[in-house]
Specification:
With 232 residues, this protein is mostly helical. 66% of the residues lie in helices and 4% in strands.
Length: 232
């Protein structure tokens, strides 16, 4: 026996319009028509809605990511296992002292940036809110540290803005390359293998970016010093 949409709404606290939206976008199974004007939702929708609410309110995931997690759960994974990849990718940095999310106004207060400076940084792609989709724009501790300790200084060098934008373009290309490598490795793998490999690759990629860039920078500095000494 299924549930009418009103019953489902009362049981979960989710508005009827939202339930219809979720069903229309594939987060819930489509209701079964039992009459000309009557439809029943599967009882599993109660748990699915509770999971959606948890992932939205506690993990701040957008619906696209939540839909992917629900898909994994449909294959038999627990919630903990189903979100294990996202747990690695979206968890706050280990040095984060504050896990709160903040809106645009609070972010400006915390960083000391002006609204105009933030607009400039966004236009250049130098600031990317932790959450920016479905009408939400939320910043976390990592955004605050970047805005306060780095971005504020970068914006002083107006004649170099185009050069700073190149960092974003280079970063995009680097991430695209990582995705291409991952695609080759996980091709034809099972869901479980895919997730396990993705977790390991995500951890490795984060360390690799920092390591390679740091070593390349050190090598360039040594080369520069050596050249300058030879010129003298």
């Amino acid at each position: 026996m299924g549930l009418r949409i009103g019953e489902l709404s009362k049981m979960t606290g989710v508005p009827i319009s939202t339930i219809r939206y979720y069903a229309g976008h594939g987060l819930l199974p489509a209701p079964e028509k039992v009459g000309k004007l009557l439809s029943h939702y599967d009882e599993s929708c109660v748990q699915k809605l509770q999971t959606i609410l948890y992932l939205q309110e506690n993990r701040h995931f957008p619906l696209s990511i939540i839909k992917n997690i629900l898909r994994r759960m449909d294959s038999g994974l627990s919630l903990q296992d189903a979100e294990s990849v996202e747990d690695v990718i979206f968890n706050p940095p280990a040095n984060a002292v504050d896990s709160r999310m903040m809106n645009r106004t609070e972010f400006l207060v915390q960083t000391g940036l002006t609204a105009e400076e933030l607009k400039k940084a966004e236009k250049m792609g130098l600031i990317m809110p932790y959450i920016q989709d479905e009408g939400r724009e939320l910043y976390n501790h990592e955004d605050v540290l970047w805005g306060k300790d780095v971005l504020k200084r970068i914006l002083q060098f107006e004649n170099c803005w185009d050069d700073f934008v190149e960092y974003v373009k280079l970063g995009d290309r680097m991430i695209d390359q990582e995705f291409a490598i991952r695609g080759k490795i996980v091709r034809d793998r099972s869901l479980k293998e895919n997730m396990e490999i993705s977790i390991e690759l995500s951890k490795a990629a984060e360390y690799t970016r920092g390591y390679l860039l740091r070593r390349l920078f050190q090598r360039k500095i040594r080369s520069h010093i050596k050249s300058s000494l030879q010129e003298k």
